[in-house]
């Protein structure tokens, strides 16, 4: 429903992806020597919260139960080559990537071709940060997730301060794939899904339809409660009664 967020820029042109993939790092053990591997999971229009969990868990278990994926071995081999040869390979790869001629088999071995890269910093006790986008590959969105912490909020109904568990999400976006209006509307839809997380148990199409309906109803309720005048009425009131109630 928000396909522009699944675009990427290559060779100074904008392309629309025909699949939705996410990348995230899996650490085999919480030690300095623990191996890190990038998991790539593909989703479709029938996935819901449960199937997303199952696919990600399967990918994590596969990585932890192996001595390295094929892409890890490929990258390890390239890094052992002499610097001159590495520079030649990288230059060739950049040229093929720019002209859209990168072989699919190589794209599958380089963990930089995806819809979004997600980094759960909170899982290692860190805060969310704004991560840079990579100059190579097709990742247009990078999202970091922070740790859970308590934050004070003001209850607009009682005007009391209450403490709630909070998680920060920081998103870095390639502004070329969509304009600010489109991105903000997409975030509003994302916010509507989080407001009613039971929708995440449905398929994306079903959840988005209900979230859009709920968002529209909420906006109508807010508009109905507005007590201020529009700009034209405001200036008419000012001209008729410039001193207001103090006259």
Name of the CATH homologous superfamily of the largest domain: Chloramphenicol acetyltransferase-like domain
What is the residue-mean pLDDT, rounded to a whole number?
84
Number of strands: 9
How large is the radius of gyration?
24 Å
Largest sheet: 5 strands, mixed
Helix content: 25-40%
Count of all domains: 2
Largest sheet strand order: 4-3-5-6-9
Q: Which fold name is given in CATH as the topology of the largest domain?
A: Chloramphenicol Acetyltransferase
Distance between the termini: 54 Å
CATH architecture of the largest domain: 2-Layer Sandwich
Q: What order do the helices and strands follow?
A: EEEEHHHHEEEEEHHH
Which percent band covers the strand fraction? 15-25%
Number of helices: 7
**Molecular shape:** globular
Low-pLDDT regions = none
Class from secondary-structure proportions: alpha/beta
Q: CATH class of the largest domain, anyone?
A: Alpha Beta
Describe the structure.
The protein is α/β, with parallel strands linked by helices and 247 residues long. It folds into two domains: 3-179, Chloramphenicol Acetyltransferase, CATH 3.30.559; 180-240, no CATH class. The chain has helices spanning 49-64, 70-79, 83-98, 104-109, 180-195, 204-225, 231-240; strands spanning 7-10, 13-16, 20-27, 36-43, 116-120, 141-145, 149-154, 161-166, 169-173. A five-stranded mixed β-sheet has the order 4-3-5-6-9, with helices on one face. A two-stranded antiparallel ribbon has the order 1-2. Strands 7-8 form a two-stranded antiparallel ribbon. The radius of gyration is 24 Å and the shape is globular.
């Amino acid at each position: 429903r928000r396909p522009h967020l699944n675009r990427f820029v290559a060779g100074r042109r904008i392309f629309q992806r025909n699949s939705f993939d996410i990348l995230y790092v899996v650490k085999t053990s919480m030690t300095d020597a623990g191996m890190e591997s990038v998991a790539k999971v593909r989703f479709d229009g029938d996935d819901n919260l449960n199937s997303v969990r199952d696919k990600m868990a399967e990918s994590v278990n596969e990585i932890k139960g192996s001595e390295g994926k094929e892409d890890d071995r490929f990258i390890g081999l390239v890094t052992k080559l002499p610097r001159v040869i590495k520079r030649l390979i990288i230059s060739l790869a950049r040229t093929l990537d720019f002209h859209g001629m990168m072989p699919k088999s190589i794209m599958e071995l380089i963990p930089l071709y995806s819809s979004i890269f997600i980094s759960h910093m909170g899982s290692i006790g860190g805060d969310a940060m704004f991560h840079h986008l990579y100059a190579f590959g097709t990742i247009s969105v990078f999202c970091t997730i922070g740790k859970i912490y308590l934050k004070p909020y003001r209850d607009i109904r009682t005007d009391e301060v209450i403490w709630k568990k909070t998680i920060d999400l920081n998103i870095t976006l390639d502004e070329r794939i969509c304009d600010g209006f489109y991105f903000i509307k997409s975030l509003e839809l994302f916010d509507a899904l989080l407001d009613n997380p039971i929708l995440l148990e449905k398929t994306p199409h079903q959840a988005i339809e209900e979230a859009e309906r709920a968002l529209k109803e909420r906006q109508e309720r807010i508009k109905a409660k507005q007590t201020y005048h529009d700009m034209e009425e405001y200036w008419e009131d000012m001209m008729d009664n410039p001193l207001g109630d103090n006259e």
